[in-house]
Design goal:
Function: Catalyzes the ATP-dependent phosphorylation of L-homoserine to L-homoserine phosphate.
CATH topology of the largest domain: Ribosomal Protein S5, domain 2
Shape: globular
Largest sheet: 7 strands, mixed
Family: Belongs to the GHMP kinase family. Homoserine kinase subfamily.
Number of domains: 2
Order of helices and strands: EEEHEHHHEEEHHHHHEEHEE
Structural class: alpha+beta
CATH class of the largest domain: Alpha Beta
CATH architecture of the largest domain: 2-Layer Sandwich
GO molecular function: ATP binding; homoserine kinase activity
Number of helices: 10
Catalytic activity: L-homoserine + ATP = O-phospho-L-homoserine + ADP + H(+)
Number of strands: 11
Strand content: 15-25%
Radius of gyration: 18 Å
Low-confidence stretches: none
Main location: cytoplasm
Length: 293
Amino acid sequence: MLTVRAPATSANLGSGFDVFGVALDRPADVVSVERADETTIEVSGAGAQYIPEDPRKNTAGVVARELDAPAHIRIDKGVRPSSGLGSSAASAAATAVALDALYERNLTGDELVRVAAEGEAAVSGEAHADNVAPSILGGFTVVRDDGVFSVDADVPLVACLPDIAVSTRDARGVVPESAAMDDVVHTVGSAATLTAGMQRDDPALVGRGMDERVVTPARAKLIDGYDDVCAAATDAGATGVTVSGAGPAIIAACYPARQRAVAAAMVEAFEDAGVDARAYRSTVGSGAEILGE
């Protein structure tokens, strides 16, 4: 048996739709694999009752198929499904790293990302890599058709997860099919600012770079209390706030001294809107790691 931990992630970060992603310290999925004649899956943990164990419909099962590496796969979910924190990606990432080691495939990081992205297609319908890339590689990642780029960064983050669900398919369905040129230019500027902020470990630049006017407003309508939570986070010292991935989680950047206050303010704002929530105080984390054999 071989066991791998893969972290939760936040994709898009406002200005980097389907391109940017960042690994979080927590929560995380833990996946154990054993060689088998055919792939079987067991799921436990957060939201396990909502996750299919049919290998054809589970991200981990699709990864096993892509690698031609049948296994008995046990998934302990730490990342709740439909959270906006890369739940399906964490399972896919952990499985890809585990089966690569178990079967001695010796794939590169980019190759593992592409395999894990095929697992994501089982959930979202498309093979997006913006969550699996940071879950495997760690750090802040930029996904392009011609490769994945990873930057180590040290920026305090707060991910606040309300007790509501937003499916990836629904969140993609509200994304506008076109955008005004002014909004495109604004998004490019924000994306460049956020990237510079990650390279400089600068929470102010990262926060400014989260501002985006096309995808975020459309998805924010799916999250009860979104505007009030963002306002509360900003008042508490957040340098930027936006939807995490497809939502409903909300991600904020801040300085270290304000992290606790930002987390408390976001939870309180959700509670004022009648929604239970919990906050994860994090920084930019490392990627998937093998825990043992």
